[in-house]
Design brief:
The complex is a heterodimer.
Chain A lengths: L1 H13 L2 H31 L4 H17 L5 H19 L9 H12 L3 H10 L1 H9 L2 H5 L5 H35 L7 E4 L2 E3 L2 E3 L4 E4 H29 L3 H18 L20 H5 L10 H25 L4
Helix pairs in contact in A: 1-9, 2-9, 3-4, 5-9, 5-10, 6-9, 6-10, 6-11, 7-10, 9-10, 9-13, 10-11, 10-13
Chain B lengths: L2 E12 L2 E12 L3 E5 L6 H8 L7 E6 L2 E2 L4 H6 L1 E4 L11 H9 L7 H11 L14 H13 L5 E5 L7 H16 L4 E6 L2 H7 L2 E6 L2 E7 H8 L1 E7 L1 H11 L2 E5 L2 E5 L5 H10 L3 E8 L3 H9 L6
Parallel strand pairs in B: 3-8, 3-9, 6-7, 7-8
Antiparallel strand pairs in B: 1-2, 1-4, 4-5, 9-10, 11-13, 11-14, 12-13
Classes of the chains: A mainly alpha, B alpha/beta.
Chain lengths: ~325, ~300
């Protein structure tokens, strides 16, 4: 089995796809870093560079005043207290909240790429994993070895998992290293707010608490990895079903982009929440953005994705082991 | 001689159409067995079933005593094959391709790779990318790949397709060498009679998913070869030839008779003695088309 996986990894590496993807990520990170830098400079110009301390102090006093006023609900009071804690941390540790470091940039990059960019990169590598063997005719040589078909497909699936992990890791490292040159490499312990829940129109802040950035990042990366694996598995299935890599990419692209569009307009079409592509923004549940359809939770979205993934994996193996190869 | 590949009652139905209609044949050790038939006769489909790419609807295939369906790994280990074109990974070198396939079979040492490379004569270019190979080189790499696991049965689908005359000749000699010296059973498919004739010991003639006939090349040709006689006067020549052998008819101002090795000069002598001027004696192998028309009773290749 190790030999088979080694073979598959060799083929992926020699096709140079992974390097191209790492290069694309590097270029995009550079681009966003520059954009972020411009934004920060703009904000600082507007607020006055040296005044952020005074500003923050002003905000803290504001919050304290609101806490002291009588007509506020218990729940809201708790939320404000947590906010106060966060602001106090910034002040104590001499952190400018509008000028983040590399970990913050990395977090934002992961949050923004989880829906479209990361799945696209995964798709580029996975799309031709099986279909290229079929269209190139090498599948005939592969299947006439003393190795059972399911083992061959499993080795390809494992190779897929490894490449997807490589993509997620290179996303992490490249965004950290490149943005760090501009924003500095500190900020791992920055406290962040999490635990929001949305019920209908209302924001439920009962469970809001502070989480240091590195823990927050770890959770988000786990979710991004999970999304990447599910998208990879779906692409893998299409790659088994179709000979043409272009067709695989086309279908996957259509699904992913329609997901991005649907997320913005399906709030009244309830059953759309069972589609995998509107469930990709898992990190939103952590940062507290309202989900596209009412009633979606982190657990729900993960289950939907997991079911799609398992079904795809099942179909892949069923078709691959039974099919006549022409 | 032992049988290496035994096929019994092989059938394949796709949808409602039966494309392979009950094939039975055996391959013996050290022989080259030809599969002769026009395009669409079912040669490639049969070969794909023999190597496990397509599941037969019914029938039984056993390789060196192992049932292909139930003992796939043991059975397939004894087969080396090229199905249609030798398609290898173009972005890897020839050597890497071989290493890749060697890793899929237990216990193939590095030396075996060098050995097969030498056997097919690719030493000089083996570390170049396959993308840069000519078709002949790819074909040879394909054979190297097929021989990697020391198979007992070698299955080659149209092995001379697209090769130049020198390449075809080389391939032919190589196939004979493998059968005679290495004791392999080689199954070769082709739609060219001349090719089969020069390479094979026995031939199965296929048409529309059926084997019409299995025989040695000698027998098939003995029956089917013709001699064209051009002589004047024609009628008299015909009479004399009819005394010696069967006259099959006339075609393009020539008398057609059976071919019998060693008899032509004697027949010619008779003609000359009778004062007939013989201008041309031409032994002709039947074309595949002729053979087909005769064997199938009027069915053409297309």
């Amino acid at each position: 089995m190790i030999n088979l996986v080694y073979n598959e990894m060799l083929k992926i590496v020699r096709k140079k796809r992974l390097f191209i993807i790492a290069a694309i990520i590097a270029v995009l990170v550079g681009l966003f870093t520059y954009a972020q830098l411009k934004h920060v400079q703009e904000v600082q110009k507007r607020l006055g560079t040296n005044d952020w301390r005074t500003q923050l102090q002003q905000q803290i006093i504001d919050t304290q005043n609101r806490l002291n006023s009588s007509g506020i609900s218990e729940e809201w009071r708790k939320f404000l207290q947590i906010r106060l804690q966060q602001q106090q941390y910034y002040l104590d540790h001499n952190i400018n909240p509008s000028a983040p470091g590399a970990p913050t940039f990395m977090r934002m990059f992961v949050e923004n790429s989880i829906e479209l960019f990361l799945p696209l990169m995964v798709m580029v590598v996975v799309a031709d994993l099986v279909s290229s063997e079929a269209s190139g005719g090498t599948i005939k040589l592969l299947l006439t070895r003393p190795v059972k078909r399911w083992k061959i497909l499993l080795s390809k699936y494992i190779a897929m998992l490894l490449s997807v992990s490589f993509i997620v890791l290179s996303l992490v490292f490249l965004s950290y290293l490149i943005s760090g040159t501009v924003f500095g490499y500190s900020g791992w312990n920055l406290p962040l707010l999490t635990g929001f829940a949305v019920h209908g129109e209302e924001l439920d802040t009962t469970n809001v608490h502070l989480l240091s950035q590195w823990k927050y990042l770890l959770i988000e990366l786990g979710l991004a990895w999970f999304v990447a694996i599910v998208v990879g598995t779906l692409t893998f299935m299409l790659s088994v079903l179709m000979r043409s890599t272009a067709a695989v990419m086309g279908i996957m692209l259509a699904a992913l982009i329609s997901g991005a569009i649907l997320s913005n307009m399906v709030s009244s079409w309830k059953s759309a929440k069972y589609l995998f592509m509107v469930n990709l923004r898992l990190t939103d549940y952590i940062s507290g953005t309202a989900p596209p359809i009412d009633g979606m939770t982190l657990g729900f979205s993960m289950s939907v994705l997991a079911i799609w993934g398992i079904a795809a994996l099942f179909i892949s193996f069923l078709v691959f082991t039974k099919r006549d190869v022409y | 001689m032992t049988d290496t590949l035994v096929v019994q009652g092989l059938r394949k139905t796709i949808g409602k159409k039966e494309i392979i209609k009950g094939l039975s044949f055996t391959l013996r050790e050290g022989e080259v067995f030809g599969f002769l038939g026009p395009n669409g006769a079912g040669k490639t489909t049969t070969i794909r079933m023999l190597v496990g790419l397509i599941k037969p609807t019914s029938g039984h295939i056993s390789i060196c005593g192992y049932d292909l369906r139930r003992q796939f790994s043991q059975a397939i280990r004894h087969i080396g094959c090229i199905v249609e074109n030798p398609e290898l990974y173009p972005y890897l070198s020839g050597w890497e391709n071989l290493e890749h396939f060697a890793r899929m079979v237990p216990n193939i040492p590095k030396e075996r790779i060098s050995e097969v490379v030498e056997l097919v004569g690719l030493q000089n270019r083996i570390h170049d990318r396959v993308r840069t190979y000519s078709l002949g080189m790819r074909q040879r790499l394909g054979i190297a790949q097929a021989l990697l696991g020391n198979p007992k049965v070698l299955i080659l689908d149209e092995p001379t397709n697209g090769l130049d005359p020198a390449g075809i000749r080389e391939m032919r000699e190589f196939i004979r060498f493998l059968a005679e010296k290495e004791g392999l059973s080689v199954l070769v498919s082709s739609h060219l009679l001349s090719e089969i004739q020069l390479m094979c010991d026995r031939v199965a003639i296929m048409s529309k998913g059926e084997i019409i006939r299995i025989d040695t090349v000698e027998n098939l040709l003995k029956e089917q070869a013709r001699v064209y006689w051009k002589a004047a006067p024609l009628d008299q020549a015909k009479k004399i030839l009819a005394e010696q052998t069967t006259v099959l008819g006339e075609k393009d101002d020539a008398i057609v008779t059976f071919y019998e090795a060693g008899q032509l000069s004697a027949w010619n002598e008779k003609l000359v003695q009778a004062g007939i001027r013989v201008s041309e004696i031409q032994p002709k192998l039947p074309t595949l088309e002729d053979l087909f028309i005769e064997l199938t009773g009027g069915e053409t290749i297309d």
